[in-house]
């Protein structure tokens, strides 16, 4: 009986020992044409054993690389792809330079500083004012994310002035009024006062809600009295 401890090292376990034995047999063939035919058959068999590689781009290129790897780069055949070597396979990639950025205010991040620098260099007063309002609103959002509470506009205004060294002045409420609870719908009806129309509509809506709540309370009271009646009858 032959044990795995007595066999040679299995280079790629994904293909098994039989594929490795086939490649070792191909290395012993002296006829180049016959060796090329056997290699093409082994490539097809390797693709059948690894069907998930068919979804990978250039999967046949990967199969040929695995073939030369299993043969220990000793196989002398014609390949449709560049033949890999031991040096290219084990070469390490170049080290990527890590971007070293040290923001002045880390709780706001580097992107906000870039926007502030762009706003300071902006010459158009309208665009500069728009940049300032966006920066102030983002500072309020960042403050609420860090502290889980609202912040006063004067605090944002003073902090922005300190960070920008007085170049940007945040104006609270310049971007628009307060946010309404619902859509403001206006109806242009000739001969009807808009203010009176809104007030009447609101009063009718509140009256309907009030009457609905009263009817619901009466229905619930009737049900409770009915249950009490049955309880008394059982007694």
From TrEMBL:
Composition skew (Basic residues), residue ranges: 224-235
Disordered as annotated region, ranges: 189-235
Composition-biased stretches (Polar residues): 189-198, 212-223
InterPro entries found in the cross-reference section: DUF4290
Protein name: DUF4290 domain-containing protein
Species: Chitinophaga cymbidii
